[in-house]
Design goal:
Layout lengths: L1 E3 L9 E16 H4 L7 E3 L1 E2 L3 E16 L8 E10 L1 E3 L8
Amino acid sequence: MLSLRSRRYHPFAVEAYFRKSLVVGFVAPQRELAGLLPAPFSLDLVNEEFGFLAAAMVDTKGLRPKGMPKFTGRDFILIGYRIFARYETAAGKRR
């Protein structure tokens, strides 16, 4: 059983069993990805031309709020993506 920690945007922790997962990384031209990021983020580029993106698919079993009985859990396939980005603070620090 895996317990996912609650983050600021999650009102509660969840529990689930991860059956399988698949993560695929891609390289794409800057012009294809740049419009997907809000300011003040910028693409993390290679050769000043290509950005990176990763797509993940996770097959979960019994996904439920932490502490709830197993019968309340549901099976899902979760899909998400991440674009590799940079952020510069007002003080000029790169993140």
